[in-house]
Amino acid sequence: MRGEVMWPRLVASKLLKKTLGSNNFVADIPRNTNSFLDLPTLDLEPVPSPKIVLTDHHDTRKFKVFVSTWNVGGVAPTEDINIDELLDTCNTTCDIYVLGFQEVVPLKASNVLGPDKKKISMKWNSLVRKALNKKSYSPYNKSNSLSKKQQLVTKGKKSDMESGMIQPEFRCVVSKQMVGIMISVWVRSDLLPFFRNPSVSCVGCGIMGCLGNKGSVSVRFQFHETSFCFVCCHLASGGREGDERTRNSNAAEILSRTCFPTTMGPSLDLPKKILDHEYVRFTLYCQCF
User: Fold this and answer.
1) 77 near 99, Cβ under 8 Å?
2) In this structure, what DSSP letter does residue 26 have?
3) Which pLDDT value is given to residue 37?
4) Which of 147, 148, 141 shows the shortest CA–CA distance to 99?
């Protein structure tokens, strides 16, 4: 009898859940919408805070960002799984890693209508942490290949890492799951003081046009003075007539319904919509056959 009572409540909660942006996500560091500067870590070594002097002069710096997506087919990760090849850590090391996953849980009714299984995302993040922090970091190795990553230009100042003062680890700054869709963002620890205003926005486009078996999880943040937006999508599948229109409709819904919260404070007029950010990348998956 208890199950009969609970299911309608779960369904109603999913249907009525707002898709607007929020700061409800998982991170290694206590959340602060303004900055990670001078904040202690949770169960990790404190991050040294570089001295920052605000001036009107800005240098243009280059940073490497790795972006990848993987549909894991509803299979839970094992402790011995090796994701080094996915992250290409043997050949290159980037400054920021953005990883999108689809179907981290099987898309059955209990997972779509019930609460998100946070332990699964914790397992994936644990594997990512292990892979990224496996070896000591050689920051500006000129022999590093630029395949599978993109060089980004932002406005900002040199970090302590560029002076060879510290050997940073990678920290998870944003991790968010909606049913089977998950996105995880990792940043070099010495760059954390320049990482500000993280937020997320989830849009369900699945069953009844609103549940999270299909849809997107988007992440927005400011790095130095550049606004970034990454969108992890799982669109409608199928290769029959009309399926393409459904996928296009999913994409249109994601672009129109994704909305990030207003940031508070001086000079924090950050974009609310995906395409208004200075740097936007999508990680997509749809099965067409």
Assistant:
1) no
2) B
3) 41
4) 148
